[in-house]
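User: Show me a protein chain along with its predicted structure.
Assistant: Here is one chain, sequence first, then structure tokens.
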Amino acid sequence: MKILRYASRISELAKSTKDRQKTINTSEVYHLWNHLMQRYNIIYVTDLLENFVKDEDFKLILNTGSKVLSKHVQLLEKEMLNYGIPLPNRPPKETQRTVSLELISDSLIFRRVLRGIQAFLPVHTMAFIHSTSPKLRELFMSFMIEEMKVYDKFIEYGKMKEYLFKPPLYRT
């Protein structure tokens, strides 16, 4: 399998952008563009919310998540440029902290980020399902696996900090 992957990469290097565009379908282009747009948005919102986080451990976790997302952005931008797909507009690099609102708690921010991760897992799955290119399927699968690992660690952190809503106990 690895030999085929290497051979495919070598042959792709010799192709022009126009020839490379013939090797992917419109669904794959959409998923690349959508993933990048969502990554831009998630990084922006995370940076914005991080301004209100009080717990230093939680800030570190959000920062680690932003680094993972930034790595994904670099991979997606590289892939899109490889196929000649126009990049979407980026949000501002930095967010401004306006006011420290007491209503915005670490647990609220945690739950907002958690819901974001939960909502994005099916997006990875659909991108994987719709891709016919082995290279892009591998990319989307790596994003999904990495995000699942982040989600798993994030849930455990939320349990430890008691940020998760606790469902009622089932008693027989």
